[in-house]
Amino acid sequence: MIVTEANNHVHTLAYQLPKQGKTCCGDSYFIRATDEYFICALADGLGSGERANESSSAISSLVEQNQEKDVEELIDLCNKELKDKRGATVSILKIDFRNKTFTYSSVGNIRFILSTPSGTFVYPLPILGYLSGKPQKYRTHTYSYEEGSKFLIHTDGLVLPAVKSVLKNNHSIEELSNSLEEYTTNRNDDLTYIVGQLF
Ligand SMILES: [Mn+2]
To answer: Average pLDDT of the chain?
Structure first.
């Protein structure tokens, strides 16, 4: 299933498929672009099926309802939300169009990479583990970006041998998405990715 979200500042595309043979996806995401910011939350619920979806969809709803808040506050709210639920790995990305910066925080195995037109890559490091409502440290960083930067954020159901060349060699979110298609056919896990380009 493909969902796109675009304005003058960002073009994004989200793609999601459940594990082969399943109908309920344990990954959930939320994306929204406004005139001021783009926000993306991606969560991978532990295990699979409905209980995994219960955790991950709680995260996407929570971030939707609190999207004006900053990333550090949001990830802590996400952790509290998962108390008494199955845990989840969670990443939150918020892009500030006016200051041309993005802030990222992640706990667990969701991957994020941003490539700039001048050829550099930003790979913010996650904290290992998962959110489960227990006291938790976070690693939240803000970076500046250049116009034309592209990014990819994905759960561990997508396994990519050469992520840098995928970002470097494709010039639109549609091209990026097409180039990822061959990696989405043989799935042992739920799979979600979001690609984006900044203007
Ligand atoms: Mn997974």
So the answer is: 96
Give residue for tokens 């941003």: 114
- Expressed in angstroms and rounded, the spacing between residue 161 Cα and the centre of ligand 1 is 17
* Ligand 1 centroid to residue 156 C-alpha, Å: 5
What's the CA-to-centroid distance between 174 and ligand 1, angstroms? 24
Contact 5, 195 (CB under 8 A): no
Is pTM, for the whole model, over 0.85? Answer: yes
pLDDT in tens, 32-53: 999 999 999 999 999 889 999 9
| Residue 111: how many other CB atoms lie within 10 Å | 19
The pLDDT of residue 186 is above 90:
no
Q: How far is the CA of 155 from the centre of ligand 1 (A)?
A: 6
Distance 68 CA to ligand 1 centre (A): 27
Give me the domains of the chain, ranges plus CATH numbers: 2-198 (3.60.40.10)
